[in-house]
Amino acid sequence: MEKLIEFRNTNFAYNNTNAFVDFNMEILEEDIVTLIGPSGSGKTTLLKMLCKRLPNDSLYYKGINIKKHDVRELQKEIIVIFDLPLTCETVVDELKKYIERIGLSQGEIDLRINRLSKFFDIENLLETKIKELNKRQKNLIKVLRFLIVEPKVLALDNVLANLYKSDLEKFFEFVKKNKITVLNVTTDLNQAIYGNKLYVLENFVLILEGSTNSVLKTDTLLKRLGFRLPLAVELSIELGHYEILKKLYTDMEKLVKTIWK
Q1: HEC per residue, 42-69
Q2: Does the pTM exceed 0.85?
Q3: Confidence of residue 241 (pLDDT cuts 50, 70, 90)
Q4: What's the mean pLDDT in 139-157?
Q5: Are 193 and 230 in contact (CB under 8 A)?
């Protein structure tokens, strides 16, 4: 798979104690990377570099320094989502707000709205006023207004925590179906089970990276950092100590079926 995002020997400092020093991280095409770490470990800083809110001369996209890419094309291919308020009057206006800025035809915009609304079953909400939505619906629209762009890379700053489980599952189904590469910054390890890789930051250092299951097995370290393992993972590890199980399970239903065989 092609390398899409690369931080190459990145150096950045807020002060003497909060700094990236020769930091390296890469994300491959179609990766779904979960990035976790304690508060103040540098997670959001990386996202701000990715969307150019902070300077970074050592960030590469598709092997080329990001400064050399056309800004308009980057807006179509890399999207970083922060938890920003909804500002339009209706749902359909909110869905159009960002996508209209990237130069798509009206026909393509309508096609994407139709496709996205069917997939997430919100066709009956398109003309609804934002103020009439419930909390669940508002949180979903906050994500969908950027997902509709169908970017090459989608980075999220702890915004999926507000989604219901069923909406979360649909989100990851959509990104996998459309081959969207994801960098999901979160404090909820339960979200890691939807991805193929798990990265752990501590004090601006990438202390762990690898396949999701391999990193989840480092349960002592993750707990030291204050993270709670998904219940199925924790039970798998404990039962493994007694040689009842020989593999790690992330799905509780599959775990229970295996135990009762």
Answers
A1: CHHHHHHHHCCCCCCCCEEECCEEHHHC
A2: yes
A3: confident
A4: 96
A5: yes
